[in-house]
Amino acid sequence: MKIKTLLLLLAVCILPGSLCAGVVFSPDTLGAGKLYRDSTYRRVIKEGTANLDCYFSYPQGGWQIQRGYGGNARELERLDKFMRSSFADTLIYVRRITLTGYCSIEGSYAANEKLAHDRANGFRNYLDTEYGLARRFPVEVRYVGEDWDRLRQLVEASTLPGRAEVLAVIDNTDIFKGREKKLMDLQGGVPYNLMLAELFPLLRRVEIRVEYDLHRIIEERYRRKLTDAEFQEILVRERASAEADERRLAELRQLEAEKRQRAEQLRLEEERVVQARRKEEQLRREEAERLKEQRFREQWLAERAAGRQARREARKQRNRLLPLLSVKTNLYTWAGMTPDFDYTAFTPNLSAEFFFARRWSAVASAAYADWDYDNGKCHWGVSAYSLEPRFWVNGDGCYRWCYVGIYGQLGDFDNRSTDSGRIAGGTANCTGTYWEGGLSVGCYILLDAHWGIEAGLRGGYRASDTNAYDVEMPYYYFNRNFRENHFGVTGVNISVSYRFGSRK
Length: 504
Hints:
Layout: H1 2-21, H2 27-30, H3 39-47, E1 49-54, H4 72-86, E2 94-102, H5 109-131, H6 133-136, E3 139-144, H7 148-156, H8 163-172, H9 179-185, H10 190-198, H11 200-203, E4 205-212, H12 214-222, H13 228-319, E5 322-330, H14 331-334, E6 349-356, E7 360-373, E8 378-392, E9 401-416, H15 420-425, E10 429-446, E11 451-472, E12 475-502
Parallel strand pairs: 2-3
Antiparallel strand pairs: 1-4, 2-4, 5-6, 5-12, 6-7, 7-8, 8-9, 9-10, 10-11, 11-12
């Protein structure tokens, strides 16, 4: 009984395991969402390999990679990104890694082959040091001394002068039978020198090629062994799924890009609105500042004008005098000048002007001279008495600016002259009387309330009764009597005046 019980328990324990071992999980039972769908997996499934060409710079004849030489730092950053993306997932299995070094064609083939060999191995040493590559994956190192195939591709895709001739030389001339020499001689070396500068640097490179073990990767994803037929079927399906995912991601990226574009447009629109508001606000502030400055300037100008007006009014008030009497003297006559603009001797003179009825005044004047001049050779004797009523144009009672008047004047004279013209006319020595009358016009300028300057002219008729005589010193002999009549300027007035009056 005990034995049967033990056998039954053993069968119960073994049977479920046997049943479970016979169960095959369909890929569909895992669910597409459980499959690994990141970018590395999709790239591996679609391409099966990963390649990167690194264009390192080396010193002349050098083969070791130096980060600080030329543009190597930039190329090493590209290499680091490639290594991280290619080996980031522990479930991505690598079948083989191939490192290939290439050289350009200039120089001897043996030297280029050795240099390509050394640079490929130098590249492997760098990868082993930085990433421990050879310890983790199988690594194969290859080298190509002169990469003519790549050069032909570059020439064919270029606009090189003589491109057809260059391709003919590459296709029809053996490497060891002067191919490079023919290229150097072609068209005077112009195509060769252009290739040397632009295309040969693209030949000097090291390539890393990673081949993935897709069979093992898919088996790990499905967690069972697969026949070749199952692998191929699943690979096709996985590649289709990866491409579908790529399309969906492309659509999502497109939608995201459109979303970002719309967001950027909204941001730019908001920024434009904000800038427009700021500009409008700035314009308002500038307009307000301009108006403020304008008001300030207008106020300043108004205050300045008011100040000037106030000063003028104060000055006017200070200078405002209602004159009753003015005493003045004619500087022109004092200077010895005559109305005919002749020079004789000075003539003292004095005038008094009486003001009445706000616009009217009357001037009484007297002048007298009786002395020799020009070292006693000439004599000037004259007396003049005049009366001149005036009408002032400005009727404010201050008697300033313009006036017109009529005048009358009489007097006598006793002159002796050495002027040749007067001697020839027989009037060098004469005595007599005269009278004149006419119009006067002038202007009075206030200097202050009392002092002022007057300038004016007299014009009209003058009549004289003259006795001419001859001189034989010490005797004077009567020669003749004659009368003269004259129309024209009869007086010049440049006077200094002092007025008496009231400030009311």
